[in-house]
């Protein structure tokens, strides 16, 4: 069977692909100076947003999102992290609705609602209701 992203069970991405996420988010700080880099980076991040997540990888992925939400210096990177989180939750709704993941996702979004950057707070407020509702509706 092939899922929505075109991956079959035998070709699903390895969880190590998520190790590329932090450096890609850090590149967002400088991507506005290079239009080609920005375009390529956005395309790659859009691909990350729709990757299938297994139930084994989901807790580690939320760990990574939690860690990145506090370690990323750039507001643009934290704002992008929110977009990725929302897409990840929606695309992998049944996996992300299991166990303590919904409450962890809620806490993460609520923490970003208190971010120092107004842009991040605005992004979090726009995604808070949708992301939290999706994470609890599985």
TrEMBL record:
InterPro entries noted in UniProt: ARM-type_fold, PSME4
Protein name per UniProt: MMS19 nucleotide excision repair protein
A GO molecular function held by the record: peptidase activator activity
Source species of the chain: Macrostomum lignano
Transmembrane segments: none
Any one cellular-component term (Gene Ontology): cytosol
A GO BP entry: proteasomal ubiquitin-independent protein catabolic process
């Amino acid at each position: 069977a092939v899922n929505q992203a075109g991956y079959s069970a035998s070709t699903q991405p390895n969880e190590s692909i998520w190790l590329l996420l932090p450096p890609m988010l850090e590149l967002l700080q400088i991507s506005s100076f290079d239009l080609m880099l920005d375009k390529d980076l956005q395309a790659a991040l859009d691909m990350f947003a729709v990757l299938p997540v297994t139930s084994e990888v989901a807790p580690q992925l939320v760990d990574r999102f939690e860690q990145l939400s506090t370690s990323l210096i750039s507001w643009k990177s934290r704002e992008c992290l929110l977009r990725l989180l929302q897409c990840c939750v929606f695309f992998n709704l049944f996996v992300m609705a299991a166990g303590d993941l919904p409450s962890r996702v809620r806490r993460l979004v609520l923490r970003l609602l208190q971010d120092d950057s107004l842009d991040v707070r605005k992004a979090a407020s726009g995604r808070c209701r949708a992301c939290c509702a999706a994470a609890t509706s599985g």
